Amino acid sequence: MNSLGLCQQLLPCSVPRRSSGACACPVRDSSVANLYSSWSASLWSCQQHKGVKQHKRHKRAQGCAAGLPFREAQHESLITQDLDDDDEPDASSSDIARPEQAGLPDRIGFLGAGKMGEALIRGFLASGVSVPSNISASVRNAERQRALSMLGIQIFGSATDGGAAEIAANSDIIILGVKPHQMDAVLSSLAPHVTTNHLIISIAAGIRISSIENALPDATHVVRVMPNTPCLIREAASAYVLGNHATPLDASRTFALMRSVGVAVTVEERMMDAVTGLSGSGPAYVFLMVEALADGAVASGLPRDKALFLAAQTVAGASRMVLEGGGNGGIAHPALLKDHVTSPAGTTIAGLAELEACGVRSAFMRAVKAASRRSEELT
Ligand SMILES: NC(=O)c1ccc[n+]([C@@H]2O[C@H](COP(=O)([O-])OP(=O)(O)OC[C@H]3O[C@@H](n4cnc5c(N)ncnc54)[C@H](OP(=O)(O)O)[C@@H]3O)[C@@H](O)[C@H]2O)c1
């Protein structure tokens, strides 16, 4: 039995466990920033875990970020970084560099910064993995230019009107943040300015790596990422795929960026449409679910504000139980958690029977499949 009083025979956990679970690092934000720093060759000037050899500090930075509390720690089989058991950071280290001190090297440029781009920018800034002076965005709409400049980042004009050249000149990592149908025009404008020193990260739904690589010079480093909007509050669920010329360092840089705003897993490109249908579009399904649950409570007599609050926290708490309930870093099977809280002839089974009668399970499956299909169509 685990701490939830649940049987541990939930999901077989394929996760190779570290000898100890959560990271003892006292400063989460800085540890992620340091992880990021550590993968850039020139960055060992960043001050962390003072008095330890450079190599050991590098290992600790990795261990620290990948060993951060539960959700990072427990998905080690899903992420790209393998850790040794002796990677634990020194709990006594109190001099981990602040992001500003770390001198984060990569300048990140966004080509298009709408809802998703802005969420990423805000997440990167909130996590400390980057600083405003290292971020720029090509934005064509004057109102958005004003809104984004409030974040202290550098703003350039439309990608197709000189902005792409400016972003290429001022960035190491270029994030393609436009809508899929806007991609061709943006790639054409970017292509003359891309070099093999750039890492191009596309977040566009449905756009294959091959079409990005074909539109850019030979050997361009490309990574395809599917994030989701909770990166705004550093709770994103992201998946990524490396292009043909992406290096292990590119993988590490991508991983560190996406990890700074949530969790990140690698998948094969053929799975990206399913990822898009699930986690890319998923926050909207959950918003709808929270709203509907609250509506039910209002119909049953609860005031709207309390109904929404309780509904949202119920979804968050139940999700947390799935993520944390498996013990030993595994994920609890939701069906077992459900059975555990369903008493004979009780209230919960009465509610569940209604959900089944309404086909809710099938509706969610169909929603994910429809969104995945739509992503395929965008190719
Ligand atoms: N939203 C999500 O939940 C989500 C999740 C995962 C992935 N994505 C992907 O993220 C990408 C962006 O989605 P989004 O929801 O953020 O869309 P969005 O809000 O429409 O953002 C796209 C932005 O790109 C700008 N843009 C278009 N052409 C431009 C150009 N030539 N130069 C500079 N900026 C340009 C648009 O400006 P205008 O306003 O002037 O058109 C807009 O601000 C899409 O490819 C989508 O598939 C989105």
Automatic annotation (TrEMBL):
It catalyses: L-proline + NADP(+) = (S)-1-pyrroline-5-carboxylate + NADPH + 2 H(+); L-proline + NAD(+) = (S)-1-pyrroline-5-carboxylate + NADH + 2 H(+). Pathway: Amino-acid biosynthesis; L-proline biosynthesis; L-proline from L-glutamate 5-semialdehyde: step 1/1. It comes from the Eukaryota. One of its GO terms (molecular function) is pyrroline-5-carboxylate reductase activity. Its EC number is 1.5.1.2. It is an enzyme of class 1 (oxidoreductase). Keywords: Amino-acid biosynthesis, Cytoplasm, NADP, Oxidoreductase, Proline biosynthesis. Residues 107-206 form the Pyrroline-5-carboxylate reductase catalytic N-terminal domain. One of its GO terms (cellular component) is cytoplasm. Residues 80-99 are annotated as: Disordered. Transmembrane segments: none annotated. It is found in: Cytoplasm. Pfam families: F420_oxidored (PF03807), P5CR_dimer (PF14748). The keyword Amino-acid biosynthesis applies. Residues 269-378 form the Pyrroline-5-carboxylate reductase dimerisation domain. HAMAP family: P5C_reductase. Belongs to the pyrroline-5-carboxylate reductase family. This is Pyrroline-5-carboxylate reductase. It comes from Apatococcus fuscideae. The lineage of its organism: Eukaryota, Viridiplantae, Chlorophyta, core chlorophytes, Trebouxiophyceae.
